[in-house]
Amino acid sequence: MRGDQVEEVRAELEVILSAGAYQSPQLLMLSGIGPADHLPLLQIDVRADLPVGQGLQDHLMALVNWKTDVESLMTALTPENVALLQSEGRGPLTSNIGEAGGFMRTRAGLDAPDVQFHLAPVLFYDESLGPVVEHGFAFGPCVLKPTSRGQVTLRSARPDTKPRVVHNYLATDDDRKSMLAGMRIAMDIAGQPAMRSVISGPFVAPASGSDEDLMDFARRSSQTLFHPTSTCAIGSVVDSRLRVLGVEGLRVVDASVMPSVPRGNTNAPTIMIAERAAGLIHEDKLAASGVVTA
Predict the structure, then answer these.
(1) Most buried residue, 1, 3, 254, 286, by most Cβ within 10 Å?
(2) 227 a catalytic residue
(3) At what angle do helices 173-190 and 211-221 cross, to 10 degrees?
(4) What pTM, to 2 d.p., does this model score?
(5) Which of 118, 167, 227, 282 is flagged as catalytic?
């Protein structure tokens, strides 16, 4: 192949990075695309000085776990329930765990809900890694539109080393207000007659309903809702067509490009980003070949 042909092939190549809000910034920084005050500390040459890894956001959730004498999903995996699922597509094994929820404003003057509730008909604690040892259920708030920001940075220039992830949850007054108000609502719900009739005691719960104990519980027992975003944000790391600023032939296509975490689950928005990226790539290829689109 002639040299001019090689250059033509190179010009047509494009790398699509889609490793998520933790690994996409890690891979960029390992490649020299990242903060100029961070990469040289790890002896990585800076190819593009961009705030990669900065601005991390996530939904922080505080689930209160209650014991109950009513059967929960803990005992759902029985031959009878398996047969029911396979033959009729119904029964307890059709549960998505987060079976109920709701959005609410915790104070007047908010343009949109600041808290989302989730309810699971089984114990759910320690980021779902805690063993289910007895019947119970869990519900509580997550902060929907946090103002706190964290970061993803490198621990080492080795690609097999995990990045350092610092979320800075509840770092702002607004986030703390929303979480505290959500915890008050959770405890109020637990105190209603219908709930008291099925609650046999606390499993993982605040020591009391005081503001101090509610915030202590939130700080000690909150967990991720697995929605990290915003570490390769549109406007600061990628452009509106998801191309890495100042770098030819490289796009990022995942939740890391969101400028801020959306006010809800990130699954559908991430799919939308991927669909839009496919359209943008197609448009750019047509434009490069001289095809004009409407």
Answers:
(1) 254
(2) yes
(3) 100
(4) 0.89
(5) 227
